[in-house]
Amino acid sequence: MAFDLGSYTTALPIANSQLHEIMPGTRARGKTSKAKPASSPQSMPQWSVSDTFASDVENSENWKVVVNMLCDYFDLPDLTTRNGLKKVHSRFDEIYSRLDKAYITSKDNPKMMGGIVGIWAKLSVDAILRDKLFRKGFIQKIMPLLDILLTRQVTLQALSTITHHSGVEARGEIVREAPRLIHLMEECREDTKVTELCIVALMHSVGIQMRNSDKAYVKMIRGSDVRSLLKVTVDALRMPTASAYMADHGLGLLASATMHFPKECKASPLMLSYLVACLRSTNICVRCEALGALLSLNAADCEEDKHQHDPHKIIVAARATWPAHLNTALRGYGFESCDITKTVQNMHAFQKAMVRCVQDHDLYALGKTASSLILNAELSVMDGAFEFKDEKTGQFKRENMGLPFIMWSDSLPHCARVLRAKGTPADLDAADIIELKYLIMKERHSDAVTLAEKVIERNPTLAYPYYIIGLGFSREEGLRAAKKGLKCKGLTPFMRNYLQWRAVDHAGDLGVSNLQDTRAGHKEYAEGVAFLMSAYEDAKGFIGSAPLDSRNMSMMLNWLVILTLAIRGPELVPDLRELKPILDKIDLADQIMTFIGHPPKRTQLRLTRELILRIYPSATREWAETIGRFDVLSSAADDPPIDASQAEDSLAAWLEKLHVGEGEEQVPERCTHPRISTNSVELYRCSWCRNPSAMLRKCGGCGKTRYCDSACQKSHWRDHKATCAGPM
């Protein structure tokens, strides 16, 4: 990050032109001739600055020169290196005392005060030094400089640097000063640089704090301040002189507010309109951050998309006369392949198998039947029982009928034991399938995942255990398992559709969360886009093959609308006519589920999709010129700073520069959106199962293909060996 602050005072006379050639904070050590200040610190008390030196500072060319002069005058080590900062550690009290006393005694010399603030800001790059400065009341000490026109920008630049590198406690100190920065933006609404630096500092402090899951930190921020913050930020983004750098931080600030302040955000139509308009940016990372913000808005008020199939409702619906248009829609897919048909068939088949088991007590045959049915429908094993009416009491009683169980679901462990005793690979697969189903029915999810992992070790080609892991709470593991399961051979339509459902849900959530992470760099952004691309592909696959009455159809259609907006962006026409077939399918799927007895819920995806489509036409018209201008500006440079042509002469460049070691520079944390092509995300996809991940391993032979693990590499070898340069 780099800003030109030197140009602010170029009208002032130059004290010594040679100073302009010295790198800020770097001691020349005889390599160049250098004018010395009129007095040295050894010739005067440490708390005093000579009038001659103060005059030189006051008449210096720019802030960079001021800081150089001060570093030399106070005999500071090179602050652009780790070694230099380490030396400050050992002399901190001495150095701080000198700077502080000079600061206090220079109230009539704003240039001197601003230069000292720049040095303090540079020290704050080091976490330990930063905390020491904060304990000295550093923030409260420098805030009054915002009221002085000459020192306003250097103070804001210092705050931007400090917040960029600050920890939780330090950030909290700056959050307390947020109202002052917001007020400054209101006062200086025509000053682009001041507005931009305020937004950057607020994003690095208030923005990060609003994304904190710990509500104790969020409580430091008042709702009234958030409302003012949203207004001044949106007003700033409407400025014709607003930069892409401001736009990046402004979007981050707006997105942050949606996480804990949805009420305030929903009360700001202009903010909502801007977020929706960002979905037409040419930068997919901008679109995805806006999408994440819109999803966050509805997180608190939504309903979970969970319901259990009620067998009685399904039977009633199967026997009922369906509305003509729904009947036509299901006939177009094929009644025999619809979920309701498969479910009813499974229920009857399991009942017959239970009756047969009562007659022959053949648990092996019951287990084989059950394992086959489990792979064909979600509601495959009914939790029923044999009941008889007691003639004396008139009450129904459940009987075991000579079997080692009463409830039908409890037959599964007994069947699994018999199957394992047979010991053939097919019987072991069947035993594992029915035992996994039993654990899920009993809501023993962690036990089910543990068993599924063991099953995969025995037989990595069996799809069902991958599905079980996909149902788990770990997004990364669930996605990896779902993608591996989709590569298994002989998948039933039910297994394929349900594995795709899990893959979309996991990848979609991971993509959004990755792109909302303020610490993300180019690699994390690319991985986030890879997640969304993966979800997009699997959502299209699910919708193209699953029946309209699938329990998950509405969720997948809502995901597809949202992912299409995020991935295709400005390719879509403003009236979104390309989405009409998907929206028509949503309407049909909702009617079908309502007829079955499961009306659609107000899920996060549904509410977000409805909000976007309601605002989209007006938002695109209102913000088209602004979004287009930001796209042009951001495409001109990866991280465009203010006055980039003079970045090398700015205090900002010096504040950000830090050599970690010999020939190595620290890369500042990214706070802007990189421009990523959807083609580049191929580097984050497994060459075999297509799982998106940043932890893929390259093929040791060709170094081009990438894999989740050795199992994926082994599975891909048959196809890959012809083009690979090395042995397997």
TrEMBL record:
Domain of life (superkingdom): Eukaryota
Keyword Endoplasmic reticulum among record annotations: no
Keywords per UniProt: Metal-binding, Zinc, Zinc-finger
UniProt organism field: Obba rivulosa
Keyword Ligase: no
An annotated Gene Ontology molecular function: zinc ion binding
PROSITE patterns attached to this UniProt entry: ZF_MYND_1 (PS01360), ZF_MYND_2 (PS50865)
Residue span(s) of domain MYND-type: 686-724
Region of interest: Disordered: 26-47
InterPro entries for this protein: ARM-like, ARM-type_fold, Znf_MYND
Protein name, as recorded: MYND-type domain-containing protein
